[in-house]
Amino acid sequence: MEANRGWEKARTWSDETTIANHESLTLRAEFDHDARHRTDVAWTFAAYENPVGERLWHATASATTPTELVPALL
């Protein structure tokens, strides 16, 4: 997150998930700390029409996704 200044990181109340919101409030990345298996979804990325609008698209990545791909999605 330090390299992407437009993003703000927050932990959820349960500490199972870290969420990053873009300053535009239309992009969101969610990391599931409890993803234990190679096929579990670890990352979910989403883009929204506007801060309170409909989701335009989303993508998921498993624990086996190359780490180089995650910054590219951000």
Structure explained in plain terms:
The protein is mainly beta and 74 residues long. The protein has one domain (7-73). The protein has one helix spanning 69-73; strands at residues 7-11, 17-22, 27-32, 41-48, 55-62. A five-stranded antiparallel beta sheet has the order 1-2-3-4-5, with no helix packed on it. The longest helix is centred in the last third of the chain and has 5 residues, at 69-73. It is globular.
Largest sheet, if any? Answer: 5 strands, antiparallel
Class per helix and strand makeup: mainly beta
Going across the biggest sheet, name each strand in turn: 1-2-3-4-5
Distance between the termini: 9 Å
- Radius of gyration, rounded? 12 Å
Oligomer description: single chain
- Give the overall pLDDT as a whole number: 82
The share of residues in extended strands comes to 35-45%
Taken together, the total number of domains comes to 1
Share of helix, binned: under 10%
The dominant shape is globular
Number of helices: 1
- The total beta strand count reads 5
Unreliable stretches (pLDDT < 50, length at least 5) are: none
N-to-C SSE string, H for helix and E for strand: EEEEEH
